[in-house]
Amino acid sequence: MTRLLDVLDEPATLAPAPAPALRVPDPASERVALRGVSFAYPGREATVRRDVDHTLDPGRVTAVVGPSGSGKSTLAALVLRLADPADGTVTCGEVDLRGVDPDAWRAQVAWVPQRPRVFAGTLADNVRLGVPRATDEDVAVALAAACLSALVDVLPAGVRTAVGEGGHPLSAGEAQRLALARAFVRPASLLVVDEPTAHLDPETARGVIDALARLADGRTVLVLTHDPAVVELADTVVAMRDGHLEKPSLPAAEALVA
User: Fold this and answer.
1) Half-sphere exposure of residue 106, counting CA atoms within 13 Å on the CB side?
2) 122, 176 in Cβ contact below 8 A?
3) 44, 35 in Cβ contact below 8 A?
4) pLDDT, tens digit, 9 for 90 and up, residues 16-71
5) What pLDDT sits at residue 105?
6) What is the pLDDT of residue 258?
7) How far apart (Å, rounded) are the C-alpha atoms in residues 72 and 58?
């Protein structure tokens, strides 16, 4: 516990801004661009991402494929501004994100992690996690869009049914769709999704993919995946190899998600 408190007391690792931004850029209408980005974890000499260049176009879906440990999650952290590059820039509409207040940037972003956290409380509380003022109607619409209406109908108290820390009694697929419902209820124009169908059976994965397709409509999306069915949703497919991004040929892309 003492060590945990020491870690919590450490200052944030985000780099100082070159200059405060005059505005908060909007990923709904402006490109998010990584230019010459390199990244290394604090305290480690090795650079894990080198000279990454890529652009996320507004309203388009980009799928990043590649083996585990290739750096896909680090890429997501840079776009979410949970980390800053050691070299290069991450911009939106030519605005360097290091100059943008992190909370203001993240207010426009929805993050669906590979293993979403479910907290003790009601199902509705968990959907409202990032939007406490969401109405009951907002919650119901989000749950329906995430293909969870059937679950709500059989729960003893509907959306007011209590769930335990970690999600009990929800299955892994239901927890994943709950995370998608959180994103549906959040007015975010940039969506970052990490392995949405990992560890799910084919039928459950299909439901998650259908929900993701609806969620992606009209949003800028970065999805990290090994799943060929998820890749089919993408307008652009790029591969992460040894810390670099590249646009693979179709056979190479299929090999990376096999």
Assistant:
1) 14
2) no
3) no
4) 556 677 889 999 999 999 999 888 766 555 555 567 888 999 999 999 998 777 77
5) 94
6) 46
7) 20
Kind and range of the H or E run holding 64: strand 61-65
Among residues 243, 240, 90, which one has the least CA distance to residue 253? Answer: 240
Q: What residue type is 130 in one-letter code?
A: G
Q: What are phi and psi of 65, to 5 degrees?
A: -115, 165
pLDDT digits (tens, 9 = 90+) for 127-142: 999 899 999 999 999 9
Helix axes 202-216, 136-145, angle to 10 degrees: 120
- Tokens 């990490």 appear where? 194
**Residue 71 token pair:** 């750096």
Residues of the chain with pLDDT under 70: 6-19, 41-50, 242-244, 247-258
Would you state the structure tokens that stand for residue 31, as one six-digit string? Answer: 């490109």
Region for 178 from its dihedrals, namely left if φ exceeds 0, alpha if ψ lies in -120 to 50, beta otherwise? alpha
Kindly state the tokens that stand for 50: 């080198």
pLDDT at 241: 74
The DSSP element (H or E) to which 82 belongs, if any, is none
- The amino acid sitting at 73 is S
Q: Determine the pLDDT at residue 190.
A: 96
d(CA 206, CA 204): 5
Q: What pLDDT shows up at residue 244?
A: 67
> Which strands form 190-194's sheet, in the order they lie side by side?
109-112, 190-194, 220-224, 61-65, 236-241, 244-246
CA-to-CA distance for 163 and 71, rounded, in angstroms? 33
What contacts 156, CB < 8 A, 6 or more positions away? Answer: none
**Spatial distance between the Cα atoms of 92 and 33, rounded to a whole number of angstroms:** 6
